[in-house]
Write a structure and sequence with these properties.
Layout: E1 5-9, H1 22-33, E2 38-40, H2 76-85, H3 87-95, H4 100-119, E3 123-128, H5 137-141, E4 146-154, E5 164-171, H6 173-178, H7 182-192, E6 197-200, E7 208-213, E8 223-226, H8 230-240, E9 245-247, H9 255-264, E10 268-271, E11 296-299, H10 308-314, H11 317-330, H12 340-350, E12 355-359, H13 360-363, H14 392-404
Parallel strand pairs: 1-2, 1-12, 2-3, 3-6, 6-9, 10-11, 11-12
Antiparallel strand pairs: 4-5, 4-7, 7-8
Length: 408
């Protein structure tokens, strides 16, 4: 993980153009001007019918909707070279009806963007969803790796009282292990060919996952079942070398999840919106600034949270009071009652964590209308930034705070 740096999360579909191209390069330029070292995106995979990139019909194929030049020529030689290089999965995508020429185009455009970012001191952080879509290219090509008696979800948590019934197929981990975790190794190989750093979604699912009986109407009737644990990551590390992974360790987390994360040496996450709980006042939780770790990534919020301004507007007085105490302790200059998002940006930058991340919506000071996703509900994923919204003045303000925090 980068030593004492910071960055901004903004999905490609939230760029003014909603795709790669001029606005993507302009965002990189803005990040560099603002002193930011990381651009984090959501999965670049093909989204589902609700536009969610976390339920993709392929764990390997990128979304052609992200292309700047969807009609760029692709030669037969280009196709054959790509098939040879990506031989593990291209057959599954073509059999599913996917256009391999689009994947060649994406590799070209993404590689050019990554080079453009690297030249300006910006690294790209990707996101690996733990699951794939039902009846997608992966389940059809490798049916033995997936179960048919239960589906994925999570138990009741801070997001929803009935849990979340995701409906994705679950892995038959014994079958995957019998093949030395080849499918997962190849998935990670493809991922690290595209990104410098990766957030591994739902990390707790590798320790134990919530299995919901097929046909259940909610996730409440599920049960925890054991995941693959360390063996998967040992296999991937043996094949690919050290993995620059951030473990998404949010939700219903127990000690075995912390133990695996720490044993592997992966940083976890702290989310400021999950701190400042009046019920935890005597024993602050892991998200609270007093308990944050150096080897950790702190966020103002994630794509599953409301914006900071929306969160602050709904926060009860006791929560606000705890947040204001933490802001004062950290010497934050922004008034949370006037600019709550900038107050939390300052607090994240002041954290001891190696990496501090903020949502673009929080830099812009937007309210709940700019929320990207509300877990447990269909829809969302549609927010798009207005052209020119990220101004030079905002870049200068963020750069000054970043420099003051020693994160340039």
């Amino acid at each position: 993980m980068l030593p004492h740096a910071s960055g901004v999360q903004l999905h490609v579909t939230s760029l003014p153009d909603g795709r790669l191209g001029d606005s993507a390069r302009a965002f990189v330029d803005w990040l560099a001007a603002a002193g930011q070292s990381v651009w984090q995106v959501l999965p670049v995979s093909v989204p589902d019918e609700h536009h969610s990139p976390y339920k993709s019909p392929s764990a390997f194929a990128a979304s052609p909707a992200l292309l700047e030049h969807p009609d760029a020529p692709v030669s037969d030689a280009d196709l054959e070279a790509f098939r040879e290089r990506e031989s593990y999965w291209t057959g599954s995508w073509e059999s599913f009806g996917g256009d391999l020429a689009d994947q060649v185009r994406f590799d070209r455009e993404w590689g050019a963007l990554r080079d453009y970012a690297r030249e300006r001191g910006v690294r790209l952080m990707g996101d690996v969803p733990v699951y794939v879509a039902p009846d997608g290219a992966d389940e059809r090509a490798w049916p033995g790796y997936f179960r048919d008696d239960a589906v994925a979800g999570v138990p009741p948590d801070a997001y929803t009282a009935e849990g979340q019934l995701w409906g994705n197929p679950l892995y038959d981990w014994d079958a995957v292990a019998a093949d030395d975790y080849r499918w997962w190794v190849e998935r990670l190989r493809r991922t690290f060919a595209l990104f410098d750093l990766v957030r591994l979604d739902h990390f707790r699912g590798f320790v134990a996952y919530w299995a919901v009986p097929a046909g259940d109407a909610t996730a409440k009737g599920g049960a925890w079942e054991p995941g693959p644990g360390r063996a998967l990551f040992d296999a991937a590390t043996a094949a690919l070398g050290e993995l620059p992974v951030l473990a998404e360790d949010l939700g219903d987390i127990d000690q075995p999840v912390h133990d695996l994360r720490d044993d592997l040496g992966y940083p976890g996450m702290a989310v400021l919106q999950f701190a400042f709980d009046p019920e935890d006042e005597d024993e602050p939780g892991t998200h609270d600034p007093v308990n944050q770790l150096k080897h950790q990534v702190v966020y103002t919020g994630t794509h599953d949270n409301d914006t900071v301004c929306g969160w602050w507007a709904d926060a009860e007085p006791a929560r606000r009071a705890l947040a204001k105490a933490a802001l004062a302790e950290a010497g934050v200059t922004a008034d949370p009652d006037v600019e709550p998002s900038w107050a939390m940006i300052e607090l994240a930058l002041a954290a001891r964590c190696d990496l501090a991340m903020m949502q673009a919506q929080d830099v812009l000071g937007l309210g709940s209308e700019a929320r990207m996703n509300a877990p447990g509900t269909e829809g969302g994923w549609a927010w798009r930034m207005e052209p020119g919204a990220l101004t030079p003045a905002l870049a200068a303000r963020l750069r000054a705070l970043t420099e003051a925090a020693g994160r340039l």
